[in-house]
Amino acid sequence: AQSVSQHNHHVILSEAASLELGCNYSYGGTVNLFWYVQYPGQHLQLLLKYFSGDPLVKGIKGFEAEFIKSKFSFNLRKPSVQWSDTAEYFCAVIPYNTDKLIFGTGTRLQVFP
Amino acid sequence: GAGVSQTPSNKVTEKGKYVELRCDPISGHTALYWYRQSLGQGPEFLIYFQGTGAADDSGLPNDRFFAVRPEGSVSTLKIQRTERGDSAVYLCASSLELAGGHTGELFFGEGSRLTVL
After folding, report:
1. d(CA A52, CA A33)
2. Residues of A with CB under 8 A from a CB of B
């Protein structure tokens, strides 16, 4: 079945460690790609997005993601995490010719000082 | 505030009862989405509206679920004969255009947590 996969369910890091969260999707054709974040007690909000152009996109708070078409991947990275990055991170895809945002299962990130 | 507002924030009901969940989108947003998020899962698409009409309701799990948006603004998600498996957080999101349009951004509310005993 077509889906969005996030293989890291729970990641625990110390402050200043580097972060990479994996995201793979199985939809063919052109896709729009997103990372959303949900901080504790808050609503989902957009972190970054890719529509076209430079496959390396930069978002808020020092996050970036790289679209690799051949690997159907859109991994999220941050060189040095902070305690305030503790949150749940969701990869999401709008498949070609649809208007539906399809989410992965999420990755819970805990950053310890 | 100017964000998406969902009420109630928490709802506890008994199996078999009828439930309504309300969403007030951001003013001027024509597209409105409903998602369901179960524990440990990502948001699962249910339905979306463009204006008053349901453009895609393919995510509604069965005919106990339906949603309306009669005036193209506020939407209500209605669940009949609730079951324990309906327990989840129901999220609403809105945007200026379908799929967020050129921005691709959906603006989410904080959700309505439904618990069916």
Report:
1. 10
2. 4, 6, 32, 34, 42-46, 49, 51, 90, 92, 94, 98-106
